[in-house]
Design a protein that fits this description.
This protein has helices at residues 3-6, 8-40, 330-333; strands at residues 46-47, 67-84, 89-95, 98-101, 107-109, 114-119, 125-135, 140-149, 156-162, 177-184, 189-196, 208-209, 231-243, 247-252, 255-269, 273-275, 280-284, 290-299, 304-312, 317-321, 336-338, 342-344, 347-356. By secondary structure, it is mainly beta. Strands 13, 14, 15, 16, 17, 18, 19, 20, 21, 22 and 23 form an 11-stranded antiparallel β-sheet that branches. Strands 2, 3, 4, 5, 6, 7, 8, 9, 10 and 11 form a 10-stranded antiparallel β-sheet that branches. A two-stranded parallel sheet has the order 1-12. Residues 1-41 have low confidence and may be disordered.
Length: 359
């Protein structure tokens, strides 16, 4: 009798134990999966934090309780882990040309869509997106979204559309729309399933209030406004930004909207690098005209810097977001001013300055 034969009964018992453990683990996994799914499709509303109310401060309904109106698919040109910034753990994705379809609207998503994902220290999520849709009839629709969730399992994105007032798509301007967002960085894909929740009844029984850590600055929704006392001081950088053809929405609910896509460019001065494809100058041409450019720099040493430059002409203010433990962290807390855009190679040229007398 061999040694292995002597231990055969023990091996059988061990195999039985493994089988029982596997079955138990499988049942636990299934139960957990059902629990996660239930949480992701909870009937309760999410009550946003006041600092990031997503345009629905009284509560964001579970999108699946509404009626599906649009499905948006966007392949990603890149997905970037920016790192821990002044607002939380930041990730950014840049879209290529995508598609949108629904019973009342179909068309494409313009290249350059931006998806900003912020994870807070307590696991909470905040989302901001900017994208441009082009309908089958050639009309442009600007979309800016804000989303939130207690964790990655249940993130709800409120869709804010700006469609031409005089078009057949004007119904998008006044609805209540919430999307479920699926971003797969490995597969480089972004999907938004958009629902009309205007007829979803409110109910407080299962509502969840979003809580944010008290020791982290809230991210802003708007751009910083120039103060009357501020003056341009030393030059920070010079940039040349290349642009694509205008995407004119026209008269919409916030005025005469025009969008100029950002396709690339260069940065020189105290910071050297390039402007990445993605984002745009989201302009309002109604007097007084304002610009709101949102885009990305990639420095020569591999850092990613989120740039926002907004305001009226003569009062443009750039702000920045980058990792707090990186070489450009000073941008997060500094005060800066921008020149008006001038003619540049393939687009516009701008100079950013340190701000004197900023409070």
């Amino acid at each position: 009798m061999t040694t292995s034969a002597l231990h055969l009964p023990e091996e059988i018992e061990m195999q039985k134990s493994k089988t029982i453990l596997f079955a138990l683990a499988a049942s636990v996994t299934i139960a957990l999966g059902q629990s996660v799914l239930a949480q992701a499709t909870s009937d309760g509303r999410l009550i946003p934090h006041a600092s990031w109310d997503c345009g629905m401060p009284e509560g964001i309904a579970a999108p699946e309780r509404g009626d599906l109106v649009l499905e948006i698919e966007i392949p990603l040109e890149r997905a970037i882990d920016v790192g821990q910034t002044q607002y939380g753990m930041r990730r950014v994705a840049v879209g290529l040309e995508g598609s949108v379809k629904g019973p009342k609207f179909s068309g494409t998503v313009a290249p350059g869509a931006l998806d900003f994902d912020l994870t807070l220290g307590n696991g909470g999520i905040e989302i901001e997106q900017a994208l441009v849709l082009q309908a089958a009839d050639g009309s442009y629709v600007y979309v800016r979204t804000a989303g939130t969730g207690p964790s990655a399992r249940d993130v709800r994105v409120v869709m804010d559309f700006e469609a031409p007032n005089a078009s057949e798509h004007a119904w998008l301007n006044s609805g209540e729309f919430v999307a479920r967002r699926e971003l797969n960085a490995a597969a480089r894909s972004l999907r938004l399933a958009v629902y009309d929740v205007s007829r979803v009844a409110a109910g407080a029984a299962n509502d969840i209030s979003i809580v944010k850590p008290a020791d982290v600055a809230p991210q802003p929704w708007g751009y910083r406004l120039k103060q009357a006392s501020e003056q341009q001081a030393e030059i920070l950088i010079t940039e040349n930004v290349t642009l694509g053809p205008s995407q004119r929405v026209g008269e919409s609910k916030r005025g005469n909207r025009n969008i100029i896509p950002i396709t690339g460019g260069t940065v020189s001065g105290r910071i050297t690098g390039k402007v990445l494809m993605g984002g745009a100058d989201y302009q309002i041409l109604s007097p007084p005209a304002t610009i709101d450019a949102h885009y990305l720099w990639q420095t020569d040493d591999g850092e990613t810097i989120i740039v926002r430059n907004g305001g009226s002409f003569g009062g443009l203010v750039p702000t920045f977001e980058t990792r707090v433990d990186g070489p450009y962290a000073y941008l997060n807390t500094g005060s800066y001013l921008s020149s008006n855009p001038g003619r540049g190679e393939g687009g516009v040229a701008l100079v950013f300055y340190e701000s004197a007398n900023a409070r």
